[in-house]
Amino acid sequence: MSEYIFDSCGIQNLGVLSNEYHFHHIEGISFNQPNISLNSSWNPNAAIVANQSIIGSAISDFFITTNNSIFISNGQQGQVLLLDSANSGNVTDTRNTSINSSSLFVGQGNQVYFDSFSSVTGGVSQIGWNSSTHPTLIISLCQQCFDIFVDSDENLFCSISARHQVLFRSLQQPSTHLMIAAGTGSKGSTATTLSQPKGIFVDTSIGDLFVADCDNNRVQLFHHESLVAQTVVANRSSNVTFTLDCPSHIVLDSNKLLFIVDSNNGRVVRQTSNGFTCIVGCGGTQVTYPSRIAFDSVENLFVLDQSAHRLWKFDLITWKSAGTTNGSLGWITTGNMSVARYGHTATILSNGTVLVTSGYNGVCLSSAELYNPLTGSWTTGTMSVVRSAHTATSLSNGNVLFAGGDNCGSFLSSAELYQ
């Protein structure tokens, strides 16, 4: 029989570390798990869903349900807000929490779980959004829960950064004690230890746990009922080389590929079959310090920017395939340019449009056209000089520098700037 010892937080320590918890998959999840083709992208020109006037300056977490309800914390006012995602983020309902909560999760039936460490009776509290206006403490903790995740079997997971651990407890058996899901309670960088863990995600199909291990600049995978992790991505990972700087949140898509908030690098990265690639904050976007992400039911990407006190929405740019329905790589026709040309340039601008300039069509051209990928349409303009075989360079401020080429008579030394 194992020896049970209870520390000051009521956490169950075993003679041999164990994270055995009952897991049997229950159909239905409360969040949107994207199923996006690898060649999809998001419009870099984001829309503001909510700003500081709505969510305050102490914003920490948000959650989008499968019916696209947006729950978001306003720590400055001690509230959880319900936003209308279809109407510019207008507030449709509120609940008072009286505290600055660091984490938020919405379960089936709009059961809202939030960190209530800052209250007199600290821990994790719950509000039945459809039935109650007053929170109820469901788990007592002596340290703050940075992130909450409730799996499909109603196990509530809590990442405690200060303790360097992820703990869990069954909500179906409220009399049970907290158990260890990951970490030893001591700061470290081994396969069994963590250092300031932040975001967590549980694969609801098999019970695997993903942990954003902030201070170790890595994402760890703990297979179900294992306390020994596999490093999925890190600066010096044996299988993937990718530089992270304090990953703070993670989402697993339905193809079991990760989306990672790389906070200190100011970006969101995506796992593909060839490794990882940047999708938001890759230069020229509005996000300054992303902390959390979520998807709506049509796979638009929402990013919480703690530094700017804003919730951003990046629309999915849909790529359809001729003769297919699964979004695999293929071709369809779109709107035609107004002028046939070759020897031209095509440059993606920071707002997602494509600028095509000059080239040759029997004569050298000065015309330019702007393509909108959302509508498939073109608008026209004119450069100051006819040129072909020139260069186009995107600058860090979003401008594009066009230089050189020829004018069908001589080589050019001139340059012009598109702003």
TrEMBL record:
PROSITE patterns referenced in this protein's UniProt entry, alphabetically: NHL (PS51125)
Stretches forming NHL repeats: 185-225
Repeat recorded as keyword: yes
Origin: domain of life: Eukaryota
Keyword Repeat: yes
Gene3D superfamilies: 2.40.10.500, Galactose oxidase/kelch, beta-propeller
Alphabetical keyword list: Kelch repeat, Repeat
Protein name per its UniProtKB record: Uncharacterized protein
Species assigned in the record: Adineta ricciae (Rotifer)
